[in-house]
Amino acid sequence: MNRLIIISNRVSAPTDSKSGAQGGLAVALAAALREYRGLWFGWSGETTDVFSGHINFQRAHGVTTATVDLEEQDVDEYYNGFANRTLWPLFHYRIDLAEYARDFAGGYKRVNERFADTVRPLIEPDDVIWIQDYHMFPLGGELRDRGCKNRIGFFLHIPWPPRRLLNTLPEAGELVATLFAYDVIGFHIEEWLESFCDFAVKDLGAERVAPDVLKLGARTVRVVANPIGIDTQEFVAAANSPPARLSYRRMRDSAVGRDMIVGVDRLDYSKGLEERFLGYEQFLKDHPEERKEVFLLQIAPPSRGAVESYQKIRATLEGLSGRINGGYADVDWVPIRYVNQGYPRDVLAGIYRAARIGLVTPLRDGMNLVAKEYVAAQDPEDPGVLILSRFAGAAAQLGEGALLVNPYSAEEMSDAILRALRMPRDERQARWRRMMDNVEQQDVIWWRKRFTDLLMGDVEVSAEA
Ligand code: GDG
Fold first, then answer.
1. What gap in Å lies between CA 321 and CA 330, rounded to an integer?
2. Which one of 5, 120, 401, 463 has the minimum C-beta count within 10 Å?
3. Residues whose CB falls within 8 Å of the CB of residue 190, separated by 6 or more in sequence, listed in order
């Protein structure tokens, strides 16, 4: 059997934590590595004075991880720079926030070369390599340059932007051309896949030789829409665990009969938190009679604090939540509980279950797993309602059960909140069932297997996404 080598910016060593501290993606990739032996390679998250390429191997719970330290300049230019100040905003359609600088692009290339130099000696001829996400677009090409003939797949966890936006990046053509080093490229949904093909055909002159095959020069690449899911079984179990029951009770008690609306997001401008607060404010304004009947709990653990736009969004949200609370709060009611910290997954599952509404309104999102977690955590007898942005990849899968909204429209959001609060139980159940069927069938194990089957065997993908 081929070994599997997974490469991603950060590596998540398996733990035996029963509180489900690890996300579904980490659990699924670790399971794949156990099945195929192999190893997981990436950045340690640590810095060193001079890059040495020294690999720190660790083995835990049947999985080998191999990590390297980077220099501070690497982290500034590659991680905080090109990855998070250039590609992340650009790929989320925010060219107003994207910063284009040659030292970022240079640092990004240098780090990918360093990863390639370091990991190359670990690769055996029959290994299959699976590279994850936008930090590592050029890595496949770098490995080919070092004589690597293995099958190499790439999966993009974020959206792919329309070509007119992507063309604002000076290095766009070069960057996309390097993707032809891969054998298979996966996207969450057709929309991202089609935007990629559009760029490849119109800007690079690639030929679409089949709906899922592109050819550029001598290289042929297969593209697939492969929507990621959650570890549904594990999440349903987490939602029924003692810590979840406890957090459910705590939330219900503290709600004193009011309906809770919940949002859970990394503190990131792509998640539409500002617009969400404005939509909720609109609801409070439109419906004075509902004011003290609801509250919004927004959990937003900080992320990427070294990047200025993330510091700004934090300040904006503090101001906005303060304004809304200042404008509407009463002695016995606060409209928004805004919390800047993370919680264990099982505690989170209990919170989701206690919420009458899951408010998931990113401005743009590759998939969005919170939407699926909210669905999985519900009580089938009395499920809550998911309000979901039509601009999240998840809308392509959950659109029949969720209330889809345009997150830029505060009025649409206000209407959807009212509709969700008034929705009869039988409609809530029917909508939830439709979503849960998808969350159960297309879980993270299905996602992983569908991609590795395609990459390893070059077989037809089994089910339509
Ligand atoms: C990227 C793409 C795509 C959040 N707060 C806490 C916590 N979380 C967990 C959630 C969820 C995960 O973080 C967030 O996943 P998302 O999918 O919502 O968003 P990104 O982090 O932006 O992920 C996205 C994903 O990659 C996978 O391909 O879906 O589109 O942007 O699992 O639960 N977890 C815990 N405590 C928290 O407070 N334990």
1. 15
2. 463
3. 225, 396, 465
Q: How far is the CA of 278 from the centre of ligand 1 (A)?
A: 22
Per DSSP bridges, beta strands 4-10 and 39-48 are: parallel
What is the CA(6)–ligand 1 centre distance, in A?
20
pTM across the whole model: 0.96
Confidence of residue 1 (pLDDT cuts 50, 70, 90): confident
Residue ranges making up the domain that contains 141 = 4-229+445-456
Residue 138 lies in a domain: yes
Could you read off the pLDDT of 323-378 as tens digits, one per residue? Answer: 999 999 999 999 999 999 999 999 999 999 999 999 999 999 999 999 999 999 99
> Structural domain tally of the chain?
2
Q: Do 67 and 214 reside in the same domain of the chain?
A: yes
Question: How many angstroms is it from 263 CA to the middle of ligand 1?
Answer: 12
**143/190 same-domain check:** yes
pLDDT digits (tens, 9 = 90+) for 171-204: 999 999 999 999 999 999 999 999 999 999 999 9
User: Are residues 258 and 178 part of one domain?
Assistant: no
Same domain for 246 and 258: yes
- Predicted confidence (pLDDT) per residue in 109-139, tens digit: 999 999 999 999 999 999 999 999 999 999 9
Extract the tokens encoding 447.
């996602």
- Residue 364: Cβ within 10 Å count: 21
The answer, yes or no, to whether residue 232 has pLDDT greater than 50, is: yes
* CA-closest residue to ligand 1 atom 4: 265
Binding-site residues, ligand 1, Cβ < 6 A:
23, 25, 157-158, 228, 264, 266, 299, 301, 342-345, 348, 365-370, 373
Query: Other C-beta atoms within 10 Å of 381: how many?
Result: 7
Q: Which of 154, 313, 367, 391 to mutate to test the pocket of ligand 1 (most atoms within 8 A of CB)?
A: 367
Catalytic residue status for 157: yes
What is the per-residue DSSP string for 70-98? EEHHHIIIIIIIIIIIIIHHHHTT-TTT-
In a domain, 46, yes or no: yes
CATH code, domain with 346: 3.40.50.2000
Of the pLDDT bands very low, low, confident and very high (cuts 50, 70, 90), residue 307 is confident
Based on the fold, state whether residues 183 and 238 are members of the same structural domain. Answer: no
Considering the domain architecture, whether residues 132 and 237 belong to the same structural domain is answered as no
Residue 268 annotated in active site? no
Please tell me whether residues 236 and 222 are part of one structural domain: no
Cβ-contact 366, 280 below 8 angstroms: no
Within this chain, do residues 223 and 330 fall inside the same structural domain, yes or no?
no
Q: Would 461 be classed as within a structural domain?
A: no
Which member of 157, 188, 231, 265 is catalytic? 157
* Ligand 1 mutation target, pool 232, 340, 369, 370, most atoms within 8 A of CB: 369
In a domain, 214, yes or no: yes
